[in-house]
Amino acid sequence: MKQIGAFLVFIIAGYFAFQQLRPKPVAPPPTPPPPAILLEPLPVITEEEQVKVINSTNDQDPDVRWEALVFLEKMKAPQAYPLLFQKLRIDPELNLKIKIINLLGTRSHPEIPEHLLEALKDHNPPVRIKALQALELLGDYSTASAITEILRDQDEAVRVQALKTLNSLQDKREAEIAAEKLRQEQLRRQAEQEAARKKGKGWF
Fold first, then answer.
1. Domain containing 181 — which CATH number?
2. Are 123 and 114 in contact (CB under 8 A)?
3. 104 is a domain residue
4. In the 3-class helix/strand/coil scheme, how is 62-79 assigned residue by residue?
5. How far apart are CA 188 and CA 166, in angstroms?
6. Is residue 35 included in any domain, yes or no?
7. Are 111 and 80 within 8 A, CB to CB?
8. Residue 15 lies in a domain
9. Virtual CA dihedral for 137, 139, 141, 144, nearest 10 degrees?
10. CA-to-CA distance for 175 and 117, rounded, in angstroms?
């Protein structure tokens, strides 16, 4: 019996020794972090290739000129807005000018209002109307005085749109004033409630 007991002790000791000495499983390497998201997408073409796109803004086909302008604006090329403003001023294609105005009306470049006001002098009434609509969309109150100058326009539709734009700017201004008054009133009430709460706790 003693031999059997000793044999069992030897087996158990051997098992625990094996558990201690066997190689530990290697933990898998940590999952690498996901790649950082680029704040600005990289252009799909080189600077040398951009020159070809810039040259395309002078293509005889107005659709080619437009797509080139859109591409430059998307890739935030420094030439994009100067070219957009230039084409708005001198391009002979009416539809291209209207497309440019539609684009500018959705952007926030600081020179846009100035060039839209300049477009109010265009000899094409649709361009003048579209420029007024873009100014309405931008909501820049500083343009209101210049817009009143076009109330003497020979085209009735242009005069109507000028008044619509002025009305819209006025409505937006009043809405902002009303929102600010509401904000100030809410702040006043919060201050009064806070003062009443402190007074109730005997802080004064």
1. 1.25.10.10
2. no
3. yes
4. HHHHHHHHHHHHHCCCCC
5. 33
6. no
7. no
8. no
9. 10
10. 24
Interior/surface letters 157-169, b for 16+ CB within 10 angstroms, e for the rest: ebbebbeebbebb
How many structural domains compose the chain? 1
Residue 21 falls inside a structural domain? no
**Residues of the domain holding 179:** 47-200
Q: Which of 36-45, 90-99, 148-157 has the lowest mean pLDDT?
A: 36-45
pLDDT in tens, 16-51: 555 665 555 556 677 767 665 555 666 788 888 899
Q: At what angle do helices 112-119 and 80-90 cross, to 10 degrees?
A: 10
Number of neighbouring beta carbons within 10 Å of residue 68: 21
3-class DSSP assignment, residue 12: helix
- CA dist., res. 72 & res. 57, Å (int): 10
**Cα–Cα distance for residue pair 106/79, rounded to 1 Å:** 18
pLDDT-derived band at 123, boundaries 50, 70, 90: very high
Question: Which two tokens mark 20?
Answer: 């201690």
Task: Give residue 179's pLDDT band: very low, low, confident or very high (50, 70, 90).
Answer: confident
Compute the residue count for the chain: 204
